[in-house]
Design a protein that fits this description.
There is one protein chain. By secondary structure, the protein is mainly alpha-helical. It has one domain. The chain has 10 helices and no strands. The protein starts with a helix and ends in a 19-residue tail after the last helix. The C terminus is likely disordered.
């Protein structure tokens, strides 16, 4: 049980590392929360720093989730139930979304969720990413892609595995993604959401 508690603390702490905030502070001396959507994530970092650095932030957010799950696997006792790892994985997303280092503000958890999926359900990760990518390429709305891929996640997990615990946690992941995109949903409805400026696909007047 002690190893489980330690793993939760480590997972949350790793998830709470705000790479978007750190990178914008280091490179341009700005607080990413004061720009764009105010979100501490890769898309908003890209608005401040450009596509290349936004992509780097996304990769780092994915990697921190993979690291947290890997440490949890090493720490956990074999006697603990299988869903213990799912709970710990959930805490890396919670850490990202509500970082103790930023007074419990944070990101929306898309890249971190990708890292969790890659670690626990590799095939589900690729399906999740393909859905996300298709929506981005056709709509150029990062938020819409994140919402649609998130909502599809429980069904994807069900079709691939069907384990009740996996489906429950997929539902939790999906709910977290949708809740963190509430303001984006309002902007999508009002047609005021910014489109991503994709290299090779950009149109005049688009903004990142």
């Amino acid at each position: 049980m002690l190893s489980f508690i330690i793993a939760i603390i480590i997972s949350y702490t790793i998830g709470a590392i705000p790479f978007a905030y750190i990178m914008t502070r280091l490179l341009v001396g700005k607080d990413v929360r004061e720009f764009g959507s105010g979100n501490v994530g890769a898309t908003n970092a890209g608005r401040v720093l450009g596509f290349k650095y936004g992509f780097m932030v996304a990769v780092l957010d994915v990697l921190k989730a993979i690291l947290a799950v890997s440490i949890a696997r090493w720490l956990l006792s074999a006697e603990l139930p299988e869903f213990s790892l799912l709970i710990i994985a959930l805490f890396v997303i919670i850490g990202h979304n509500w970082s103790i280092f930023l007074r419990f503000s944070g990101g929306k958890g898309v890249a971190t969720t990708c890292g969790v999926l890659f670690s626990l359900y590799p095939l589900a990760f690729f399906i999740f990413f393909i859905i996300w990518l298709i929506v981005v390429l056709f709509s150029r709305y990062i938020s819409l892609a994140s919402i649609i891929s998130g909502v599809s996640l429980p069904l994807v997990i069900y079709l691939l595995k069907g384990d009740i615990y996996d489906i429950i946690f997929a539902l939790i992941f999906a709910i977290l993604l949708v809740l963190r995109h509430r303001t984006n949903i309002n902007r999508l409805i009002n047609k005021s959401e910014n489109k991503i400026n994709l290299p090779f696909f950009a149109k005049k007047g688009d903004r990142l």
